[in-house]
Amino acid sequence: MTPQSSFMVVAPLLPGKVAALRTLLATMNHCPGSVNPDNALVPFGRFDRLHFARFVILEDVTAGDIALYGVKPADFPVYLAFLGDCDGSKQAFIDDLVRRAGEGLRSIFSHCEGFDSGSKLAAWMLEHDKPAAAAYVNWIGRPVRQIVEERALRHFLSANVPRGAGGRANGDPQSIRKHLRDLVEAERSAGRLSLTDPEPTPLGWQVREWLHAVWVPLVLLAALPLMIVALPFLAWKLRRLETTDPEVVYRPPEAQLAKLRVLEDYDVTNQFTALGSVKPGRFRRYAVIVLLLLLDYSCRHIYNRGHLTRVQTIHFARWVLLDDKQRLMFASNYDGSLDSYMDDFINKVAWGLNLVFSNGVGYPRTSWLVVEGARNEQHFKNYLRRHELPTEVWYKAYPGLTAFDLATNTRIREGLEASSATDEQVREWLKLL
């Protein structure tokens, strides 16, 4: 199994360079929101271990909201962020990226503070890599190569199924399956179809995951007595803050919404990037740190096979704390429109949204951390849109495929490669084609 990694290179921009950088990044697109995978700067389409990537300028238009708490807004720099999700280690991928797209990356990062032409690019990128406080992978261990091969397999099988009236498979199910298996074997022998065996799971990754799976519950168990003692105070503090924290939930200006909408719906999958301040005070800071730790644990060890709680439309997502944990950035790659994406979360896991995002300045008011909040649908949607940032460049390695498609294609391959199957199992398998 090939595990996935993520990277996020973050660096402050030089004064006066934002407009020039936006112009340069725009040359990587066919049009706003639609990347050219073979662009001259970073030809993403030539990297067969890259799932998603994006360049986004982190310019926070909501930073002044914290003044509602009587806190002077910080003078945060404008950052460039380069995000990616890849197969294998991020260091190996960045080394490959630098070898093959170093010149383009240098021209982009030349707009950043502390970068010069003599910098060792890979080392500079890793030095500026910002690890996620929590990260979600739809299906840990499904590499790009497998996705591409299983898409081709599905197309081939669908084109060769003998069909009757209504387009359904026609004939004895076992005979059809044997016929299709023979055709696939012939295509593989001729080199026209590939089904690569999984790579061995790296031992180091297995050890790290096992240790992480064990130490987090142990730490929580050790802290349990203290948490029980502190619970009455924490509950009082939480309710006191929840009843006094200001909301900032007005609809964003139409011009801001228009800039965001023009970048959406070029594919069945969309991107989302948002940035906002964490509410002031140690209570909120420690709350978001602990809750992101628990979220990361759940994503790594529980929700790693096609769904995040009840939501099945997310490919990759991450939560990143910035500026000494004063701000939180969220980035995701999801299927469908943004409205359907937000509705999916509101209807299925509004409590989960509240746990983390209610610690952000201006979030719709919650009760006991999990009640209300995102349930106030329009306020929640306004809040997200206010904090959303336009993504300058966004790449997806397998356009046209949803997370549901990826799961279906894997089931098709598993059904084909199974040593045996009952007639009923084959009929259900054929329905997938």
Automatic annotation (TrEMBL):
Keyword Membrane: yes
TM ranges: 210-234
Alphabetical keyword list: Membrane, Transmembrane, Transmembrane helix
Protein name per its UniProtKB record: Peroxidase
Originating species: Paraburkholderia sacchari
Lineage: Bacteria, Pseudomonadati, Pseudomonadota, Betaproteobacteria, Burkholderiales
